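Board work, copied verbatim: Phthiocerol synthesis polyketide synthase type I PpsC
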Amino acid sequence: MNNETVNPTEPVISDSGLPVSVRVCDSVRERDGGMMMRAVAYEVARPKSALQVVDAVVPNRKAGQMLVRVETASLTSLKRRRRIDMAKGQRLFTSLSVPAYGIAGRVVESDSNSKFRPGDRVMSHVNHVAGEVCAEFAVCGDQHSALIPETMPMDEASVIPMAGAMALQAIREDAKVVSGDRVLINGASGGIGALAIQIAKQTGAHVTAVASAANEPFCRELGADEFISYQDMNFTWNGTRWDVIFDVVGKASFREVLDVLKHGGRYVSTRPGEDPTLVSWFAWLFSKTGTAMDLRPNAEKLDELIQLYENHRLSIPIDSRFAMHEAADADRRFEEGLIRGKVVLLNNF
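↓ predict structure ↓
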């Protein structure tokens, strides 16, 4: 068999200093001949369903993938997760959905020729359709994963594969920010926005952060040059023009920002359901560039972000930590607002 597993006689030490077993048989349960685990999910077809702990089948890995025991997962708000599911037609073919993409954990099983070995600490961007994320175990592709430095805590590591990669791609690849650009980041205090501020500043950009008034000190500490409270002013009516607008929260359409985007300016949005063709057509018509962002995860992005972290050029703010069985409480944290960084779930199963 072309894989390796952890030696059950050798304990693996968690970040807390306590020995933990990463053998599948220690955590999963058998039911009807199948291996089951616990996971956090919600019912896609029920608009008001909350996050809940459910039984799920331990995902099967394929060649080029590894099975990872999840220690932490970075959470996406349920409201946003629903918008993504609806935009992708998820409601039509699945009953449950998992509100996360980035995880950190330890390898349980991998290919014999993989650079990732059983027991390794890894971070990964996980396709939630192929394998659970907020769960005891996840299937992770080698090409979407990276080793976690010993100096990086697991909770911070789980933020990089999704929030970190989104920020890096938006600023470096999609918006092509260069030194001297005036960049506006809408939703600057959340997990993606907080990292985007730092990455944009490192390119020499002048950054305007848009968030709630209470988060101004937080955004300025991360490097923002100017600040707009969305409670006091709609930036699309501001009269100022920017070279780049990165709409992290996906609430300002391309048509809404046209008047505040410079000639040749670039607009990037994470707005679910934004039609890339329509955005591109409008952009061409007005001599601007528009991108409806879709993350292109790869190990190179993770390696670059890890290097920034190790060189003390990137901090990873954690807003709050919840046990996985407290996922519903964690989601309510998003509804409270004033998010500063990322909300993460800790595997307590």
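Confidence is low (pLDDT under 50) at residues 1-27, 81-94.
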